[in-house]
Amino acid sequence: MAETMNIDVSIKLPPLLLQPFSINNNEAKCTKCNISCAPEEKNILYHLSVCNGTLIEENIQTQFKFNCLKCNYLTDSIDQWKCHLFKLDHISKNVDFDIITFSYDCMLCNTHFYGFRESILKHHCQPKFISKLSYVMSTVYGKHKCQDNQTMLHYCTYCSFYTYNLTELHKEKHSEVACISVCHSCHITFYGQTNEQYLNHRVTYEHMLLWYLNGARSKTKKINSTNLNKSYDVDDDDNPRETICQDNNEIIISTRNLTSYITKKNIITELIDQLSAQPMKSAFNDYIRKNFDLYIRELQTSNNIELSMGFYCEICDIVLCNHDAWNEHDKEFHINDNDIKVLFCGVCCIYHLSAQTVTIKQHFMTVEHIAMKVFHQITLNQIKTSTDHINNFNKNPNPTNDDKDSDFNVETKNIKYSNEYYVKNKTIKNDDSNFKKNNYIVLNEIIQERYGKFKLVEYVNNSFAILFENISQVKRLREDKKELENQYDFTIQFVENYHSEKVLSLETKKLFEDWSLLCAKILSDLELMNLSRTSIETRSRVQQLCDSICSFQINTDSKKIHTFGSRVYGLATNTTNIDIYLEIDDTFDGIIANNEKIQVEYVQQFTKYCLSKPEVFQNVKSICNCRMPIVTFYHVPSKFICDVSFKSGLVTYNTELIKFYLLMNPTVKWLVCVIVKNWAPQNGLIDRQLFTSYALIWLVLFYLMTEKVVPSLIKLRHISTEDDHKVIEGWDCTFGKCFIYISEEKRPKLLLGFFQYYANKRALKDNVLSTCTGQLIKKHEFFERFSQLPGLSQIQRTKFKNFKAEVDSSFEKNYGLVLQDPFELSFNLTRNLHDKALNDFCDLCMQSSRLLLNMKD
Fold it and tell me: Where is the C2H2-type domain (predicted)?
């Protein structure tokens, strides 16, 4: 280790990473495995990843966002974060060992930071000090030495005390916090009430680097090498075996496998050297090199080779090994890229995505592909197979008629491999071997040449699913179906609703063809709804219902029977259901809102009362497995279908707010009537799994807020009086009142604008529609930005911050439509609207806008 002090200053890597090497001008020799590499940053980093088995720790679960203040890098993905930490551009910035950097978790904005102390303290949450865990990780990183007997540091998360000599007194003092977690990479034992800080430390740069250096072993690599040598020196090939412990996973290495491994070592090293010699090494190059050593390790212990799938994005020069991570990457960076080309190579076991056409010949000529072919030959020769397997190396061991005269699909018990391109598609027959060998590329070329561009080709359920840009391409392919099947011998199936464009109903098309017809229909609807609201008969029926409820004598009176919903704000007809909140024992302000047990008890008791009077209440049913437990029934005297709830009076204030907006100006109610009472039900959008009428009303009001037609709730709160102040369930329900002027001449423009606004899929998927502010707010920064809005009352701000987990799951990590409730700020009114349903909604809006543009005056 003495030679490591004479390190060439031109190697810009942290000193800790250079400790295992003896470096001179010609080579960097690893003192753990005695293998040398070129004294260059990339080669040293690569060697460490191979020498220690695994580059970066897997299975890290976290809710953090990540911000590298040194590189000005921000991401929500733990996989992207890990890749960033080990890019040379980042890691070379940590060379100066005298300047201390820290990893810091900010629980206010749920972000993990890495950078200098001053930078961390200046971020928008402005913490007053660096956490103790940050100092612990910095201390461990600074003192770590590459030696066999690294001293364990003991850290008590309960009192933020850490020491290398934990006393019995300290253990006894905190014996109640007996949750102990050990990190063998960092050599830290965590003591605490929970393992939260242990889990949090796993995303730090320091932990990642020490994992990179030590490979997550409970013993260092040098000790493992000794064990390997002991195993090799044993005379008996069949019995003696040594066990190497890697985080409780035992690997049994036989002397026969070890001997075979050593004899192939030089060839593997040559392949690595060939790849390393490339002047411009891509992420694909690094991926192939690192996999070589991992495959060999598998062959030491097993005759089975399972090639892991990779996704190489040439545009971003990144390889991802997880399908979910790739989907996230695609959504974030390439959602609008229609020219991406895709090929799949079974030899390299990777999907290759690029912005330029990559042909099969070009891929075959790459150094990486050639190296993988050679590597497969080495591993195949090493596998212990029976004589039958060897003689049938390129044949199916149980051939069928379709398999004869084909060397394409190779399926033995030991390996899944093809000479050129590995095809999982069992529906492609074997008559045309040239097509089968390269089916992915050929299929790509056939489709693009004859039918134009398509978004992607995806392997689904033993077949290739092709997603076209428009319906006309599908129609042409349908016409050519028989010709293609006969020529290329594969089967084509059309999945009708895989992502078909939803079509407007005939009723809507007819209504939107003529402006005068539309106006007449809406005028008729509004008159009917107004008649229902003011009708003496309707009031009498409502009173009959209230009298029946009061007859139960359940600690309530007629003043505490609150109707809410469309019957209050004037969008109901004679056949519309009625919603009632029943206030029992002064529960209006929400004292039982968080006690579902009491609500269920009220529901069950009220159900019994209803069932006791079958001549008055019919079809009685209690629904308790929902967000707000209710009793639903048919009231015989009034002929109402009724839903009764007991949670709080928040629903009545939601109703009052909508009622106020609809009364601001007749045009507001007119527009709501068009969308909620006509367009949406005509196209099947009123459904619990899609939109409620309540959510659709807020979609209309939110659009009007963005157009400055109606004021946002925050603005209404600014003009409120002391008498307007109200808090329910801890949410500030205060709003003042005003009136506005909207000319009827603006109605066509506003209706068209509504559909054009909601036809924008990307804006809806990327943003939260905040009905409180009347603005779009980016999903990935919603909690942080909204909680700091100056217009929020202190009550709202405090309450909102208590629901970070709910906001994170329902808002920031929701890929569908997110429409914020105006009072209950942590609730997403469209939480069930995801992916296809949102696309259908946007498609309908787009079609509607086109109709309106061509509408007759």
Answer: 313-334
Q: 402: domain range?
A: 385-488
Residues with Cβ < 8 Å from 98, sequence gap 6 or more? none
Cα–Cα distance for residue pair 199/217, rounded to 1 Å: 18
Pair (828, 679) in one structural domain: yes
**Six-digit token string for 627:** 């967000």
485 within 8 A of 429, measured Cβ to Cβ: no
841 within domain boundaries? yes
Q: Are residues 454 and 577 in the same domain?
A: no
Q: Same domain for 633 and 675?
A: no
Strands (E), 525-626: 561-564, 578-582, 617-623
Do 641 and 741 lie in one domain? The reply is no
Q: Which of 265-274, 409-418, 611-620, 784-793 has the highest mean pLDDT?
A: 611-620
- Torsion sign over Cα 33, 39, 41, 43: negative
Q: Which amino acid is at 765?
A: K
* Residue 72 shares a structural domain with residue 205: yes
With beta carbons less than 8 A apart as the criterion, state whether 20 and 32 touch: yes
Residues 6+ away with beta carbon under 8 Å from 203: 60, 62, 64, 66, 78, 81, 103, 112
Whether residue 706 is contained in a domain is answered as yes
Residue 639 corresponds to which tokens in the numbers above?
């002929």
Spatial distance between the Cα atoms of 202 and 60, rounded to a whole number of angstroms? 7
Domain count within the chain: 4
855: number of Cβ within 10 Å: 18
For 283, other C-beta atoms within 10 Å of its C-beta total 18
Convert the pLDDT of each residue in 105-156 to its tens digit.
Answer: 988 888 999 988 888 888 888 888 888 888 888 888 888 776 656 778 888 8
What is the CB neighbour count within 10 angstroms for residue 454?
Answer: 17
**Strand, coil or helix: what is 279?**
coil
135 belongs to a structural domain: yes
Kindly state whether residues 79 and 123 are assigned to the same domain: yes
The amino acid at residue 17 is L
pTM assigned to the model: 0.47
712 shares a domain with 618: no
Domain harbouring 817, CATH code: 1.10.1410.10
| pLDDT value of residue 148 | 57
Highest mean pLDDT among 21-30, 497-506, 613-622: 613-622
- Measured between alpha carbons, how far is 631 from 646 in angstroms, rounded to an integer? 9
- Under DSSP, the state recorded for 502 is P
Amino acid 672: pLDDT = 97
Question: Is 397 a member of any domain?
Answer: yes
Evaluate whether 290 touches 55 at the Cβ level (below 8 Å). Answer: yes
Tokens 């799949």 belong to which residue? 344
Residue 549 sits in a domain whose CATH number is 3.30.460.10
Quick one: 82 and 182 in the same domain? yes
- Are 663 and 738 in contact by the 8 Å Cβ rule? The answer is no
- Write out pLDDT tens, residues 444-493: 667 777 777 765 554 444 456 677 666 677 777 888 887 777 777 677 77
